[in-house]
Design goal:
This is Tetracyclin repressor-like C-terminal domain-containing protein. The chain has one domain. The longest helix has 24 residues. The model has no long low-confidence stretch (mean pLDDT about 80). The protein is an all-alpha fold. It has 7 helices and no strands.
Length: about 110
C-alpha cells in the first residue's frame, strides 16, 4: 500500500503537473475534502494493522495509534506537497522505511 501511494504521487507529479497543482490548490482552499481523503487512508492503515494483529503478523496494543504512526512516517513519500520538494536532509529510501515500519510491528519473541 505504501509503495502504491508513493507511486501514485510520484507519477502524478511527473506526468500530470497541472493536476498536481490543482490538488495543491484544493489543499489550500478546501481542507474538508482533503481531510476526508486523509481519514480514508488512515482507516485503510488501521484495517491493515488490525488484520495483521488478528493474523499474528503484527503486535500492538493500540492498532489505531500504530496506524497513525505508519501514516505519519510515510507522509514524506506520499504527501502531495512533500513529494514535490527535495528533502532538506537525507531521507531513507521508501524500501528502507517500509522495512523499518514493518519490523516495528512484528511480534516480539521470547522474554
Amino acid at each position: 500500500m505504501i509503495a502504491a501511494l508513493h507511486q501514485d504521487t510520484a507519477e502524478r507529479v511527473r506526468a500530470y503537473p497541472r493536476m498536481h497543482e490543482m490538488i495543491e490548490a484544493a489543499m489550500d482552499e478546501s481542507w474538508e475534502v482533503c481531510s476526508h481523503h486523509v481519514d480514508r487512508i488512515s482507516a485503510v492503515f488501521e484495517r491493515l494493522v488490525v488484520e495483521g494483529v488478528r493474523r499474528g503478523e503484527f503486535e500492538t496494543a493500540d492498532p489505531a495509534a500504530a496506524a497513525r504512526c505508519l501514516h505519519t512516517a510515510v507522509a514524506r513519500y506520499t504527501h502531495p506537497l512533500l513529494a514535490r520538494q527535495p528533502p532538506q536532509a537525507p531521507v531513507p529510501s521508501l524500501e528502507t522505511m517500509t522495512a523499518f515500519l514493518l519490523a516495528s510491528l512484528r511480534p516480539t519473541r521470547g522474554p
